[in-house]
Write a structure and sequence with these properties.
The complex is a heterodimer of chains A (115) and B (112). By secondary structure, chain A is mostly beta strands. Chain A has no helices and 11 strands. Helix content of chain A is 0%, strand content 48%. Classes of the chains: A mainly beta (115), B mainly beta (112). At the A-B interface, strand 5, strand 9 and strand 10 of A face strand 5 and strand 10 of B.
């Protein structure tokens, strides 16, 4: 079974530029999550999708971050404009319907550096 | 507000000895507790879990203990192996929301 795919793996941009990340979840996983992991901290949930609907985006900075999940499969996360404090690893995860303890399967992440 | 705290950023143990990783949480309403493991340049992977109705769960070399009255969770690895060197995240979840909340992580180094 293929895992969660993310691209790009690394991205370096200057502040005020825009950037987009892509995620392809495990086939059949209805729920998709985007997390932000700042160095030295644990992953923090940004947004949760159930199929192509948003379940929780309470911690998404909506003035600069946006996310969509077209057709309930792939998802993109965009930052526009980026700030220095957005430097982090952005993790995508997915979980199957009825999964045990909401076990989530993570991709390798995209490391973003904002200069 | 940090709902999940791992007060030890790092831990170093000798191969073959026991590793004990600790975690404290603030909300007694959490339903289940998990540990995730993360190697460099990889995403976190699920390791072991325990529900709020149990106080111990064992899976091979890994055992998780839950003390609900103290709101404390621990992970024991015995015997520790060099391949166990990784960052370990304490994670809590609620059945109502399905949301997982991660601690800051503890970096475990197992020396040969």
């Amino acid at each position: 079974e293929a895992g969660v795919a993310q691209s790009p793996r690394y991205k370096i941009i200057e502040k005020r530029q825009s950037v987009a990340f892509w995620c392809n979840p495990i086939s059949g996983h209805a729920t998709l999550y985007w997390y932000q992991q700042i160095l030295g901290q644990g992953p923090k949930l940004l947004i949760q999708f159930q199929n192509n609907g948003v379940v929780d985006d309470s911690q998404l900075p909506k003035d600069r971050f946006s996310a969509e999940r077209l057709k309930g499969v792939d998802s993109t996360l965009k930052i526009q404009p980026a700030k220095l404090e957005d430097s982090a690893v952005y993790l995508c995860a997915s979980s199957p319907p009825g999964g045990r303890y909401n076990e989530q399967f993570f991709g390798p992440g995209t490391r973003l550096t904002v200069l | 507000d940090q709902q999940v705290k791992q007060n030890s950023p790092s831990l170093s143990v000798q191969e073959g000895r026991i590793s004990i990783l600790n975690c404290d949480y603030t909300n007694s309403m959490f339903d289940y507790f998990l540990w995730y493991k993360k190697y460099p340049a990889e995403g976190p992977t699920f390791l072991i879990s325990i529900s709020s109705i149990k106080d111990k769960n064992e899976d091979g070399r890994f055992t998780v203990f839950l003390n609900k009255s103290a709101k404390h969770l621990s992970l024991h690895i015995v015997p520790s192996q060099p391949g166990d060197s990784a960052v370990y995240f304490c994670v809590v979840g609620s059945g109502n929301t399905g949301k997982l909340i991660f601690g800051q992580g503890t970096t475990l180094q197992v020396k040969p």
